[in-house]
Each structure stands twice: as C-alpha cells, then as structure tokens.
Amino acid sequence: MWRSISVLLLCGCSLVAQKKPVTIEALARERPARPASPIWAPDGKRFVYQEGRQVWLYDIPSRSRRQILSLEAVEAAAVKPPPPVRQEWQNRNVRERPIQWGPSGKELLVAAGGDLFWHRLEAGGWTQLTATAEAEGDPKLSPDGRRVSFRRGRDLYVLEIAAQKITRLTEDGSDTHWNAQLDWVYPEELHLETAHWWSPDSTRIAYLQFDISRLPLYPHADLLPLNPVYEPQRYPKAGDPNSEVRLGVVPAAGGRTVWMDLGQTRDMLLARVAWAPDSKGIAVQRLNRIQNRLDLLQADPASGASRAVLQETDPHWVNLADDLRFLKDGAELLWSSERSGYRHLYRYSKDGKLLGQVTHGDWEVTRVACVDEAAGEVFFEANQGGPLERHLYRVGLDGAGMRQIARSAGTHGASMPDGCAYYLATHSSLTSPSRRTLHTRDGAEWAVFVEADRKAEEEFEILPTEIIEVKAPDGALLYARLIKPAGFQPGRKYPAVVVVYGGPHSQTVRNAWAGLSLDQVLAHRGFVIWQLDNRGSAGRGRAWEAVVHRNLGAWELEDQKTGLKHLLSLGFVDAARVGITGWSYGGYMTLYSLLNAPDLFAAGVAGAPVTDWRHYDTIYTERYMGLPSDNAEGYRRSSPVHMAANLKAQLMLIHCWEDDNVLFQNTFQMAAELQKAGKHFQLVIYPVKSHGVTGSLSKHRYEATVAFLEEHLKAEK
Predict the structure, then answer these.
(1) Which residue, 404, 427, 453, sits at the end of a domain?
(2) pLDDT, tens digit, for every residue of 477-503?
C-alpha cells in the first residue's frame, strides 16, 4: 500500500512531506469541543447550542449565529453559598437539561453552577432565580412558561418565576425514599432520563418515587486521601431486589399526591411515562422483571385508576424504544414493535385497536425523528439499505409514499423540531469525517452548520478501513472491519489484534468515520486490526439478537472464531501472534474467548470485564439471562471466573477501582481464581470513579495496552 503524501512548494522547489503516523500522543492531546446538540426554539426556526461554556443562537432563515451567553460569566457573577460536600453516584445517562426555551421563544431557563437563571434574549442579561447551597436538580420549565419544577435533596419543588415564590411539593424525601430522582440502574439499563413530567396544561406534575431501602450497598471507598473515604453505592445485582417505584401526580400549586394504581409493582419496572395531550391521561410503559412482557397502561391522574391499552410479549425479551407519539389530540397512538422480527411503526386507537402498520420490511426503524400530523407524515431513521448504514426517511401515517431523504452513503442522523420544517443532519462515512448541515424538510441542504474537520487526516495517515463479509457455517452473513498495518507488504505475516465488544443492543461495524483511534495507533505499530459483529449484536432483527438468551458468550464466541478463521485464510496474519482486547462487554468477551478457546490467542487485554454475571446489575443481566435462581447453570457456564485454569495466553486486566457500572469485585475475584490456578497475569488499576478511564489517565491506559501487546505479539514465534 502506498502511504499518503502531500507536496509542498517552497522557493520553487518540490518537497515531499509524509503524513505522520497516528500516535498515542495524538490521541491524548486536547481537541476543540464540538457544538452540542441543538435546543430548538418553539417556532422551529432557531436553536441554541453550547460550544464549551458559551451559548450560541443560530437563526435558520438568515443562516446566522451569535453568542448570547457565557455560562462562566453567569456563574462568576451569581450569588452562591458554598456547596455541601456530598458524594452522589448519579448515573452518567441522566440527561438534565441545562437550557430550555420559554414558550414565547424570547426567554431561556438556564441551569448553571447548581442554580437557575432567567435569560431574556432581546433585552440581554439574566435574573438569578435560586441561590442555594444545594443544587436544583433536573429543572423543567412548565409548558406555559410560568413555573419551574426542580428537585432539591430528595424532594420536588416548584418556583413561580414572576413572584420568585418556591413551593415544596413533597415532604417525605429521605436517604431511602427519593422523589423525582432516579436510582442508578434505571437510567443505565432502561435509559430513562428523568423522573418527573409536567402536564401539558401546566397544572400538575407526574413523578416517580423510588424506595431504594431494599437495594444492597456496595462498599466503594476512595483510597487516595490519607484517611480513606467510604462512598457506598446502591447497586442491585442479578437476583437482588430492585427499587420499589410508584407514580404519583401532584398539583403544581401544592397539595396531595394521587398515586396511580398500576397493579403489582414490586417486581415490575416503570420504564416510560408520558402525558396525553389533553392532560387527562398518563401513558405508562410497564415491564415485568425479566422483561418479556411490556404493558402500555393509561392512568387517570385524578383518580389514579388505570387500564391496559396494549401489550407486547416475546419469548426472549422486549426491547424498549422511545417511539410513542400521540396523534389526533390523543385519540390515536404511533407505536413501534419488533413483533414482525424487525422494529416497525404501527398506528393504534387510544383503546388499543390496531389501525394499521406504517412501515414494513426486513429492516429496522431505529428512531422516530419527527411527526408532522398536519401533513400526515412521520420522519424516521432506519437501515433499510442494509445494516451497515443509517438514513433518514419519511412516510405517510397511512403507510403510503415512503421515501429516503438522505442518500449519500454512510451513517446519517437528524435532529428535527416540532413541525418538521427543518432538520440538522449529521453525516459521516468510513472515508468522510462527520459533517453537520441544515436542511429543509425535503432534504435540500440549506446551510452548513459545522464543516467536516479534516485536520486529523491532513496531519496524520489515517489507514483505510475495509468492510469484510464473512459467511458462517450455517450460511449467516457476518460483517467485519479490517485495517491493514502501515506499509503493508503482501507475502509478509503480521501480528493481529481482534477488537471485540460483542454484546446485545450494540453494533460496532458501520459505515461511519472513526478517525484517530487506538486501532490506528496499533496499525501504525505493525498490527492487523480486526473487528466483527457477532450474533447478539444490534441492527439485524430479533432472531439475530435473541440467540444469546440465557447463554451469554457461546454464540458470540462461535462467530468470533468464524471471523478469525476467515482472517487467517487471507494469508497475511501469523496465527501464533493473535491477540484480543475489549472493554466492558468486550472485556468480558476477551476473557470468555481466552478461556473457552485457549489455543486461538497468544495475548489478551480485558478492560472492566464482567467475570461473573451474578455481579452485574439486575435489569441488564436478567433481561438476557433470566433470574439466577431459574438459570443457575447458564450463569455458571457464561461466567469466566469459573474457567481460570484454562488460561494459556498472556493476560492483562484493567479496571477502575470505583467503577460504578462493572464493579471492581469482578476483576478482584477473577484475579483470585487465576492465582489459585497458578496463572500469571498483569493487573492495572486506575483510581477513577467511573466505568471508563478518562482525562490524563487515558494516555497511561493506551501506553500500557500497546506496550503489553507489542511485548507478547510482535516477536515472531
């Protein structure tokens, strides 16, 4: 392969400048912040967004933007008592909204530094609404723009903006009873981003109350201070009790909470909540504990009574989606289901009568982008053209006239405001960095919001990624990606690194830009890079994903073995110098592969691995494995901790000491079993309170990983 070169003309002479190899230093250096997601104005013609700590306003008709606010300046000028010292294990998937539009489109509610501010766009300046030591959590502006709800401590409050009067709506919050506050596992595994919702008429608030008293405490401890600090986390492992959750409705002016009667909830999960447009009903999606039944209920906020609207069942598990939309002022529903084997859109009456299927085919709707009821259309993202790409489509609510809007090859995403007049598109491919453009509803490009950043590929040699098709023994088509090493020479044998994730509801092989990555670093160090999406991964329909049910690891490994066999058949990989690495589920798959196929790999780096599925959280684990009491042998068979004696390869384990997701206990017990079996390994621990190694320590992790793989795979055997 010819390396890319650029020609420089200087003083009439031609100088050849070769692009730089991708290095760990290049990965570690800071990059400019990309603009955040748009926050659309009520008119759908403007949006605000953040660049770092600066807030900008973009006007679509004029194709212009201007800076309107500095969050740093707001915080610096704000009145603020010193905050209390308190360790909170808030899940990273909680999505509190720091900026919200008022209904007039002339004001913004801004959360900064733990307090709330009211910013007027035309007049400029801002008014501080709160000045408290404790932060106002999860603030929400009422639909009429007159009040702000928020959580302080474990209780729910409302502030009247004009009078700056605060009313406390709940009184019973405590360390174990959380009002309008999510526990750790709900946002992690159900992707529920908030725990309270305004009624459309701004008179009431629905909220979840979490009783976490039955959740076990995991004993995290910060060991960096001179005196260690105990920092326990409520973490339910497979088979443990979940939080007991109930849904209440409270008047926004204060008063008695009406609790919704949703039937037995102790072993149920309240996964989604949405008000009907007329404020007279609340749609609740309820899952049973092992998640093979999803009920859509409608609750009466006045009486608390509820009734069933429709039900989804699956012999394996039901995947959640965020596609519910109310039509005709609540008389109809847009709903998505995988009952056909692929996720598609359906229309129902409010009483649960099927009115029609909107989309069809052996492909998946991946997201509803916008519903234009006036035009009778729905815009959505899907992989109709194949699982490697995502495109934007629109179709009539009656199922007629479906057409693809974005046509260039690659991965497309769209952010659309109510009314669907415009959209902000994000597009990339294996050969094109991400580009963000504004479009009219018919797909015509209106303006460039952020041009593709090509600095990395201009400075560094980004080695090409190839998509490889692999046939499994049963005829199934598998997709893999391949990066050949820098200076690749046919006839040579190279070491290879198999990069793996492999878990359900995830897809890693896509026609999308990757740019600078550790894969590129390794390829420039002389490694072949290979990654394959095995069965169990997302994007291929229910049958493809559900094969892993109650038996994690087995199908995934069989497909990974098929992929490795294909890679070796290409003739340029040394079978004696193949390594494997992954993080999280990929760390699990690294260990599972090393211990169940010990002759295939010479080395492995397992990051934050689950080593015993009894140590992972309830909602994720029980969805795929069932309860430990009902599938004891499946849990044992799927857990690497029981197979330590099989290790033949060189092994490095990496884990964060206070990992709140995959608990360090997994790696600790794996290490203990390896020691009992007389197996030697390396262990790298980071003092980080998160699932990933972040900040300046990421460079250390990259260096440790590359050094280990070079030591054990580069020398020819």
Answers:
(1) 453
(2) 999 999 999 999 999 999 999 999 999
CATH of the domain at 544: 3.40.50.1820
Among residues 584, 593, 638, 639, which one is catalytic?
584
Token output for 696: 């300046």
Report the CATH number that the domain containing residue 440 is assigned in CATH. Answer: 2.120.10.30
Do 467 and 562 lie in one domain? The reply is yes
691 is catalytic: yes
Mean pLDDT value across the chain: 94
Q: Are 697 and 709 in the same domain?
A: yes
| Domain end among 425, 453, 481 | 453
220 is catalytic: no
For residue 327, the enclosing domain spans 314-453
Q: Any catalytic annotation for residue 584?
A: yes
* Distance from C-alpha of 655 to C-alpha of 433, rounded to nearest angstrom: 31
Residue-wise pLDDT for 256-270, tens only, equals 999 999 998 889 999
Q: Are residues 370 and 331 in the same domain?
A: yes
Whether the per-residue pLDDT at 717 is higher than 90: the answer is: no
Catalytic residue among 391, 524, 615, 691: 691
Residue 322: Cβ within 10 Å count = 14
Q: Confidence band (pLDDT; 50, 70, 90) for 90?
A: low
b (16+ CB within 10 A) / e for 608-647: bbbbbbbbbbbbbbbbbbbebeebeebbebbbbbebbeeb
CA–CA separation, 211 and 195 (whole Å): 13
Q: Is residue 434 located within the same domain as residue 469?
A: no
Structural domain count, the chain: 2
With bands split at pLDDT 50, 70 and 90, how would you rate the model's confidence at 8? very low
**pTM exceeding the 0.85 threshold for the entire prediction:** yes
Catalytic residue among 559, 612, 659, 660: 659
H/E element, 583: strand 573-583
